[in-house]
Amino acid sequence: MKQYIAPEHLRIVGKGWEIRHQLRKLAAASGGMKLVPFTNGLPPIKVKLGNSSTPSTPKE
Asked: How many domains does the chain have?
């Protein structure tokens, strides 16, 4: 797992259970600090699966 911390930024890279565990540890150590300041300015994540540039048509 990797963790990058900068002013107003937090990036955690790893497996889901590692990230959840780390977020719980950070929340407990922060004394109630919320993650909202880190997530408000982020754009939504867009995920493209496969080749979305060409429409799929069934071949006969």
From this structure: 1
